[in-house]
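Lab notebook, design round three. We kept the backbone fixed and only want residue identities now. Task for the bench partner: fill in a sequence for the structure below.
Input structure tokens:
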């Protein structure tokens, strides 16, 4: 079986976007591995933890995909520690401390970590929690330091050994600016997050028939995750996989991501994300510790598909109020493919007057994001140019 393919099968008869399904499957796989497996690169080590955030409009089934991943993980025994989404820095450290004991290797006897599952990311991260130090704690735990120290008010210095942390979250287009405060954009926290954005309108599914076949697939997935609990040790990267990776690294090095100040941090960490995702593709096929070119090829397809939307995500986060409004209108036109001006005015009459809409349309037209035509009745019609 292929874990990711079967995870997606559980959701293919729902309104969950396929890219949300596959990334939630990735999150479930890698959360199971904690920090028991790794890729050694000399001066640093790559562990399989991941920060993944789904972004879409309200009601676009982010929580459905996230909660399925959580449900599978909760049914595995022993499974990873699942952390509540509303947590202080001190509460997070307390929650993950010494969550597992593994007598097979000394360094894991006091390993501390888990996965935060936050289908509403703003309940975890916002300006207030960032100011209280949660952002710094998240970034440090993501880096999987062998020893992590944190100064608490009540208990003095808390020391974690073998720390790690994964995150699977969701937020809406409207709340993204509150979920990821401006001061966190570009480096630090956002460079460690894979933002998975979808603005498509799925075909309606009024009734989900979770038949006997899907029930069996879910049981098989839980059993497969259970089997991964015994996997432990370094991952061997084959020579052909290394050559493929080195070629991709050089190719991406000159990409436009490095020219964007809000994506430069991601670009510098992209090779790490690539390896983490490749590990998930490897584990989806079999409980293996040999990473091949085939695994990297699969990861490259998934990652590049997500990267096509990352610039739009950064624009949402850093945009001014008018910029956010422009993005909102652009997303609506993109979803509809083409929109009459009269329809657009009716849609947004509670938010903008006709002059403001004209300004937004002018901005989108001059930036080549929409085209403006006239229909047979002389009415202006706006069409997405696919940006």
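Proposed sequence:
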């Amino acid at each position: 079986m292929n874990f990711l393919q079967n995870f997606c099968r559980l959701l293919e008869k729902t309104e969950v976007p396929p890219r949300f399904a596959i990334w939630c499957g990735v999150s479930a796989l890698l959360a199971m591995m904690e920090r028991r497996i790794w890729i050694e690169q000399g001066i640093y080590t790559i562990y399989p933890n991941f920060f993944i955030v789904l972004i879409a409009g309200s009601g676009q089934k982010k929580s459905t995909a996230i909660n399925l991943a959580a449900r599978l993980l909760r049914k595995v025994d022993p499974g990873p520690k699942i952390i509540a989404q509303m947590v202080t820095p001190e509460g997070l450290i307390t929650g993950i401390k010494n969550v597992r004991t593994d007598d097979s290797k000394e360094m894991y006897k006091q390993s501390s970590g888990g996965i935060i599952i936050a289908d509403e990311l703003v309940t975890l991260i916002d300006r207030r929690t960032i100011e209280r130090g949660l952002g710094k704690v998240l970034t440090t735990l993501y880096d999987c330091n062998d020893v992590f120290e944190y100064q608490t008010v009540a208990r003095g210095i808390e020391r974690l050994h073998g720390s790690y942390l994964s995150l699977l979250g969701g937020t809406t287009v409207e709340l993204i600016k509150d979920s990821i405060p401006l001061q966190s954009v570009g480096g630090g926290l956002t460079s460690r997050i894979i933002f998975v954005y979808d603005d498509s309108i799925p075909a309606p599914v009024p009734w989900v028939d979770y038949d006997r076949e899907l029930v069996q697939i879910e049981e098989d997935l839980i059993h497969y995750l259970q089997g991964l609990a015994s996997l432990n040790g370094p991952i061997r990267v084959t020579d052909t996989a290394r050559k493929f990776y080195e070629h991709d690294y050089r190719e991406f090095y000159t990409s436009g991501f490095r020219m964007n100040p809000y994506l430069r941090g991601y670009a510098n960490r992209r090779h790490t994300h690539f390896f983490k995702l490749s590990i998930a593709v490897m584990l989806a096929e079999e409980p293996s510790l040999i990473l091949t070119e085939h695994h990297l090829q699969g990861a490259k397809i998934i990652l590049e598909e997500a990267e096509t939307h990352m610039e739009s995500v950064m624009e949402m986060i850093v945009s001014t109020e008018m910029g956010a409004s422009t993005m909102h209108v652009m997303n609506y036109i993109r979803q509809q493919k083409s929109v009459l001006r009269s329809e657009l005015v009716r849609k947004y009459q509670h938010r903008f007057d006709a002059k403001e809409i004209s300004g937004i349309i002018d901005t989108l037209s001059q930036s080549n994001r929409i085209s403006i035509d006239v229909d047979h009745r002389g009415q202006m019609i706006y069409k997405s140019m696919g940006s």
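Keep this in mind before ordering anything: Confidence is low (pLDDT under 50) at residues 99-109.
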